[in-house]
Specification:
By secondary structure, the chain is α/β, with parallel strands linked by helices. The protein is 40% helix and 16% strand. The protein contains 14 helices and eight strands.
Length: 314
């Protein structure tokens, strides 16, 4: 693991969790989990994306933890979750299911938010019992279900086989990212963020992404290259809201619109002008507000009502 640390102050500095735990997935992978906020408060589960960590959600945790119980976890190989030789969408689904089972009471409902690969994790796990039992609503931020490399616009050239081939080589590079230099910040901003992203946003994202080990980055790039989760989208039967930036080069709006058309219960698609792929960092208040609104609408305890156990509601 890299020793590069997240930013130490400001809105993107990771808050100190109320408690931490290690969850063991079905194949023995150890998953680092953080819990923030008061016990008994409406639950929110956060799944980060490729090359990120729980630190990616710092702004959401800071805003929501006063009156929500926030559960954030590191995808395997990312952050403080050790690398594991199993790469694939099924292991991602295993990890999410293990986190939900370990942190939520039987019948407890939560809003689950996934960014990028975190959203793909939700699609992969959509048919799992834990997701069906615990997901009151879902927020998908800057994500897609298939054909990711072909649709990416990282390279400013016409879509087609040449662009796809070159994009595959760039995203799948094994080269270490190295220190966070001015050039590294410019490259990361171009590829993953909108042109109006402030220096504090870019610095926070650069530190998070550069902390991801190169072997982990490469291993998961191969999974994303071959991703086909269209079937999982149709299994997300709970209310789902989508957020995407119009300048997202990794999962452009065409991906979000395809999700909205395929979801059984899409309750909203928000396209944010000029924003890039890192929407929870680039539009922290909007993303936090979406999560809060979903909790208020779909979690009974957030409205002061008695929570109905799953078996009673079926």
């Amino acid at each position: 693991m890299s020793r590069l640390l997240p930013v130490a102050d400001g809105p993107y500095a990771p808050p100190v969790p109320a408690r931490e735990l290690t969850v063991t997935a079905a194949d023995g992978a150890r998953i680092h989990v953080e819990v923030h906020g008061p016990e008994g408060a409406p639950a929110v589960v956060l799944a980060h994306g490729w090359c990120c960590s729980t630190a990616f959600w710092a702004a959401q945790i800071r805003e929501l933890a006063a009156d929500h119980r926030i559960i954030a976890y590191d995808q395997r190989g990312h952050g403080r979750s050790p690398a594991n030789p199993a790469y694939g969408t099924e292991p991602l689904a295993d990890d999410l299911e293990a986190v939900l089972d370990a942190t939520l009471a039987p019948g407890e409902r939560a809003v689950i938010a996934g960014h990028s690969m975190g959203g793909m994790t939700l699609m992969a796990a959509a048919g799992r019992p834990a997701v069906r039992d615990h997901a009151a609503a879902v927020l998908l931020c800057s994500t897609g279900s298939a054909r990711l490399v072909a649709s990416a616009t990282v390279l400013p050239m016409r879509a087609g086989r040449v662009r796809t081939w070159l994009t595959r080589r760039i995203l799948g590079s094994r080269a270490p990212l190295g220190p966070v230099t001015p050039l590294a910040r410019r490259i990361l901003k171009y590829g993953t963020m909108g042109p109006g992203s402030g220096p504090d946003m870019v610095e926070a994202c650069a530190r998070i992404v550069h902390a991801c080990p190169s072997r982990v980055r490469h291993g998961w790039s191969q999974v994303l290259d071959l991703l086909d989760l269209d079937h999982g989208v149709r299994e997300l039967r709970m209310p789902v809201e989508i957020v995407v930036g119009t300048a997202d080069r990794l999962t452009p709006p065409v991906q979000a619109r395809a999700l909205a058309a395929a979801l059984p219960d899409c309750v909203g698609l928000t396209e944010l002008p000029g924003l890039g792929h890192m929407t929870p960092v680039e539009a922290p208040d909007l993303v936090s507000g979406k999560i809060r609104a979903l909790a208020a609408t779909y979690i009974p305890s957030a409205r002061g009502e008695r929570a109905v156990p799953v078996e009673e509601s079926q």
